[in-house]
Specification:
The structure holds two protein chains of two kinds.
Chain A: E1 4-7, E2 10-13, E3 19-25, E4 31-38, E5 42-51, E6 54-57, E7 64-66, E8 76-78, E9 87-94, E10 101-103, E11 107-111
Parallel strand pairs in A: 2-11
Antiparallel strand pairs in A: 1-3, 3-8, 4-5, 4-9, 5-6, 7-8, 9-10, 9-11
Chain B: E1 2-6, E2 10-14, E3 19-21, E4 23-27, E5 31-38, E6 44-50, E7 56-58, E8 64-68, E9 73-78, E10 87-95, E11 103-104, E12 108-113
Parallel strand pairs in B: 2-12
Antiparallel strand pairs in B: 1-4, 3-9, 5-6, 5-10, 7-8, 8-9, 10-11, 10-12
Classes of the chains: A mainly beta, B mainly beta.
């Protein structure tokens, strides 16, 4: 199906474990983004990518790693999960500048 | 630098009455502005967007917003609220020459009373 899909929808992991959140889009959009949503903070940008093999930090990148070897995929890895990374994570994609952004359904991550 | 301030964290209206959700922004460049809606446990859906064309923008579900450069505002309105409008609303800004990064406001939770 066309669109932007995130997996898993829900994840519980333990402190210190590595976990990867997946994001896949079918439009060949150049730009992809990862945001986290927390009460009292709204959505904050973690990392973004302007094209395959081009990534850059957002507002809150510490503790996260991204890669983009293919245009359609933009995985987000928590190298050693901490409780403060409990959040809802949204992936988004965009074509040309400011033309439109589409968000995935989100991944609810709980770190225990 | 850019920022977005949503002036009300919660707004409560009665069904059938008008909705006003307020948003002020600051941006070093001519911005693009968006309103997104998020229903409980759902993703974000685009309501409408302003990208330097007409200053009055019409969106889905009867919502509209007016870009006022002199007031740096982009308030969201709807003439008559429905129960299904109850959700969280986000005002979002991106400067047109900053590589597509979005800055979100803190959100406004709209409650609709029967």
């Amino acid at each position: 199906d066309a669109g932007i899909t995130q997996s898993p929808r829900y994840k519980i992991t333990e402190t210190g474990r590595q976990v990867t959140l997946m994001c896949h889009q079918t439009w060949s959009h150049s730009y992809m983004f990862w945001y986290r949503q927390d009460l009292g903070h709204g959505l904050r940008l973690i990392y973004y990518s302007a094209a395959a093999d081009i990534t850059d930090k957002g507002e809150v990148p510490d503790g996260y790693v991204v890669s983009r070897s293919k245009t359609e995929n933009f995985p987000l890895t928590l190298e050693s999960a901490t409780r403060s990374q409990t959040s809802v994570y949204f992936c988004a994609s965009s074509d040309v500048r400011a033309a439109g952004y589409t968000f995935g359904s989100g991944t609810r991550l709980t770190v225990v | 630098a850019q920022s977005v301030t949503q002036l009300d964290s919660h707004v409560s209206v009665s069904e059938g009455t008008p909705v006003l959700l307020r948003c002020n922004y600051s941006s070093s460049y001519s911005p693009s502005l968006f309103w997104y809606v998020q229903h409980p446990n759902k993703g974000l859906q685009l309501l409408l967007k302003y990208t330097s064309a007409a200053t009055l923008v019409k969106g889905i579900n009867g919502f509209e917003a007016e870009f006022k450069k002199s007031e740096t505002s982009f308030h969201l309105t709807k003439p008559s609220a429905h129960m299904s409008d109850a959700a969280e609303y986000f005002c979002v800004v991106t400067p047109n020459n900053a590589g597509n990064m979005l800055t979100f406001g803190g959100g406004t939770r709209l409650m609709v009373k029967p």
